[in-house]
What does this fold into?
Amino acid sequence: MFSRLRIGTRGSQLALWQANYIAASLGGEHEIIVIKTTGDNYPDATLDATTGIGIFTKEIEYALLSNQIDVAVHSFKDLPLIQPAGLKVAAIPPRGPVNDIIVTRHDCLAENQHWSLKQHAKIGTSSPRRRAQLYYKRLDLQLIDLRGNITSRINRVFNGELDAVVVAAAGINRLQLQNDIVNNSGLIISLPLNEFLPAPAQGALALEIRADDTNTKTRLEKLHDPITALAINSERALLACLGGGCQLPLGAYCNFANANLHLHAALANTECTRCYHAKASAATIKEVVELVYDSLSHVNA
It folds into this structure.
């Protein structure tokens, strides 16, 4: 019989949902341990001001290394490319919704505009990737820096401060916020993956453990999805090849079909005024990443 599993997580509503989802999927006895991260301590700081590297993960990883917890549940897109020595991702569960969405109000719509948003709409996002892809289609939009949890972001649309925000569909779905949006006279516009690409690993969870903890590794094995892992590892391998982290304006989505990996990426220039798209299909991560990298390596070179 397994001993009580100590699950480490941030304390946000979404992070707690993720930790409880993993606990329920595993069964058995567990304890959810909330750990405050740099990103939680400075919710209004920009990523640049806090370096952006591991601001939502490093305190949780320290707790893991110091044996305060047995497994860390991360939003995979927040996890830095380089892990601390002694830690590893032991399981990647099936991915949730991948795409981004726009949350807006009915009075902000215009039928003859792309994404049906009115001219000069004020849209909240601090993501360089999202800003670049918004400008790529709509130079008229007013992009407003925005941080905070998903609920506080969409509330700024409801109170009229913003006309719209761009958020991950996974967060809306996991917290079941669709009814709240509709009840506040809001609506959701899905951004299609063929034109608006998510962050690498968006919608996926990473279950991180101590590398020598074979008991926890065995316990997590049933949650691991090899197909999701192939896609996530492809997207993050491309991110690494391009020398990026969370501030690189890169969108990437990979899926596995017909015995091949299909990788589509969009990288913006330094000014985030133009996006360059590349697609490739191949049988291995190495091959598909090399093909896409060759098409994008000239950007910002």
In short: Residues 226-241 form the longest helix (16 residues). The two ends are 54 Å apart (CA to CA). The CA atoms of residues 43 and 266 lie 28 Å apart.
